Amino acid sequence: MDEQEQPQPVVTRKNTSDLSWLDSRELSRFVTETGRIVPRKYTRLSAKDQRQVTRLIKRARNMLLMK
Q1: Cα 16 to Cα 60: distance, rounded to the nearest angstrom
Q2: Residue 1's pLDDT is what?
Q3: At 31, phi and psi to the nearest 5?
Q4: Which numeric CATH code is attached to 13-62?
Q5: In sequence order, what DSSP letters do the residues of the chain get, joined into one string?
Q6: How far apart are CA 31 and CA 11, in angstroms?
Q7: Quick one: which of 17, 25, 9 has its CA closest to 49?
Q8: Where do the structural domains in the chain lie, given as residue ranges?
Q9: What contacts 28, CB < 8 A, 6 or more positions away?
């Protein structure tokens, strides 16, 4: 039987403070191909960092930098 592999973390904690809503390429790592924000379960971010990333993605979407 195949063992289910653990998903690799998307980013480390120290990198999230450097993100900006202008960095659409960096933020796209937290968004699926269909445009949904990746949950904490897969990003392995703390709740605080996940909220920050979510806010940045929503700002970038409002400014039409991301779809």
Answers
A1: 15
A2: 47
A3: -125, 140
A4: 4.10.640.10
A5: -PPPPPPPPS--HHHHTT--TT-HHHHGGGB-TTSPBPPHHHH---HHHHHHHHHHHHHHHHTTS--
A6: 13
A7: 17
A8: 13-62
A9: 66
Q: Are 52 and 16 in contact (CB under 8 A)?
A: yes
Q: What is the pLDDT of residue 13?
A: 53
pLDDT of residue 18: 85
Measured distance CA(13)–CA(16) in Å, rounded: 6
pLDDT number for residue 14: 56
pTM over cut 0.85: no
Long-range CB contacts for residues 6-11, cutoff 8 Å, separation at least 24: 7/42, 9/43, 9/44, 10/38, 10/42, 10/43, 10/44, 10/45, 11/43, 11/45
Q: Collect the ranges in the chain with pLDDT lower than 70.
A: 1-15
CA 29, CA 38: separation in Å to the nearest integer? 9
